[in-house]
Design goal:
421 residues; 17% strand
Length: 421
């Protein structure tokens, strides 16, 4: 027997042992993965976004808004809005995008009237047209409609003084469409001017259609006519003002002279988020002042949608000048009852939106998410006496192989044993 025999025997023993271990692992049950806490009924860690909306235009509310946001930020159930950069639009001055154009148009009207009284008809015509241009970017209201009628009248009167009867009749005709009840005072205006205005009012021009190729709400002569793009029938031939409005677009319009069926493209420019938030906050303030609950709910929902929030604190001013606050949620009951602000702590104001902190979780029974011990039935080959016997046999084989390797290979039976006689 060669000296390599013990090595081969040892290798065989190791392989037998490895095979036994492999069999044991194959028969053992699978160990379940550690449970995910979010799937085990653990409390949600999502924090609700809250906006603070100031409708008071009172400078001291800024400190209250900051205190509320600080408390919200320190809460583990609420948080400030994810959309940042709109804080200036939610407090302080209520911006009205139409206020300045209306104010300036009134200035042009007054200038046109002043120079017309001085018989400077050309200047009066220019001032009136400049005022009308400003109103093309203003949403039509009763005030805007009356102001546009004033400017159109002054333009027509100035054109009469300059000997432009056709242009004057169109401008005076638009004045009548904007304000059907308007008449010229014979005590103030000369007879030929009064007669020209009457002709413009009583003349029945032909009718035509207008194809508006722009998205938004269509206003023709400051009267809402429907959604665009679309075709609008039954319009008198002559001067008209067409305005396009919408919550998500910039107000834009055009002054046109309708002769036959006309196609009118009007620029559609989208209002950015800042403008939309300013509009919604202003609408909310006006609805609050009018105590118009449906309009208030609509404006609040629009504002919350733009800010990406479902909860809010609204601060406003009462008719007597006192500040008041109320909370709002995008679920019942919506707005809470208003309360007068008397230096309440932010925590008291916010408690209507729910607790600021989560209660500590208490557990009864075994600790959460602890894997229970696995009980596996013992296999036959895993029993102690079986493994001991196997290892004993292996050891015997190794030892026997070793002893055999020590025997002198030259020794023979015939040299040591004699046959019996």
């Amino acid at each position: 027997m060669t000296s390599g025999l013990p090595t081969r025997v040892a290798i065989c023993a190791v392989l037998v042992t490895a095979q036994l271990a492999s069999m044991a692992r194959a028969d053992a049950p699978a160990v379940p993965a550690t449970p995910d806490p979010s799937q085990e009924g653990a409390p949600s860690l999502e924090r609700r976004q809250v906006a603070v909306i100031d409708l008071s235009e009172d400078d001291k509310v800024r400190a209250l808004s900051n205190a509320l946001y600080s408390t919200i930020n320190n809460s583990d159930t609420l948080k400030i809005p994810d959309l940042r950069g709109f804080d200036a639009e939610l407090t302080g001055f209520l911006y009205d995008e139409d206020a300045d154009p209306i104010k300036n148009a009134k200035g042009y009207r007054d200038q046109a009237q002043a120079v017309l009284d001085e018989t400077k008809a050309g200047d009066a015509e220019g001032f009136a047209r400049d005022g009308k241009k400003l109103l093309l970017k203003v949403k039509p209201t009763a005030e805007v409609q009356a102001l546009y009628a004033d400017l159109s009248l002054l333009e027509g009167l100035a054109e009469l003084d300059q000997g432009k009867p056709a242009e004057a009749q169109r401008a005076l005709g638009l004045t009548h469409r904007l304000d059907p009840t308007r008449q010229l005072d014979p005590a103030r205006y000369p007879p030929d001017t009064v007669a020209a205005f009457k002709r413009a009012v009583t003349t029945k021009p032909q009718l035509a259609s207008l194809d508006v190729q722009s998205e938004g709400q269509v206003w023709i002569d400051c009267v809402e006519r429907g959604a665009g793009p679309g075709t609008f029938e039954g319009l008198e031939v002559g001067d008209h003002v067409v305005t396009m409005t919408g919550p998500e677009r910039l107000t834009n319009g055009a002054a046109i002279t309708l002769k036959t069926s006309t196609v009118l493209p009007i620029d559609t420019s989208r209002a950015d988020a800042k403008v939309q938030i300013q509009r919604a906050r202003l609408a909310l303030s006006r609805a609050q002042t009018r105590r118009d609950d449906p309009a208030r709910a609509s404006a609040m929902n629009k504002l919350a949608e733009l800010l990406g929030v479902g909860d809010a604190v609204m601060i406003s001013k009462r008719a007597d000048g006192q500040l008041q606050w109320e909370t709002w949620r995008n679920r019942a009951p919506g707005f809470s009852a208003p309360k007068i602000y008397t230096n309440q702590k932010p925590e008291e104001i916010l408690e209507g939106l729910g607790p600021l902190h989560r209660p500590r979780q208490t557990f009864t029974g075994p600790p959460p998410f602890v894997r229970p011990p696995i009980v596996v039935e013992e296999k036959f080959y895993e029993k102690g006496w079986v493994q001991l016997s196997a290892f004993g046999a292996i050891a015997a084989v190794i030892l026997g192989g070793y002893l055999i390797s020590r025997i002198d290979p030259q020794l023979t039976v015939s040299q040591d044993v004699k046959p019996a006689m």
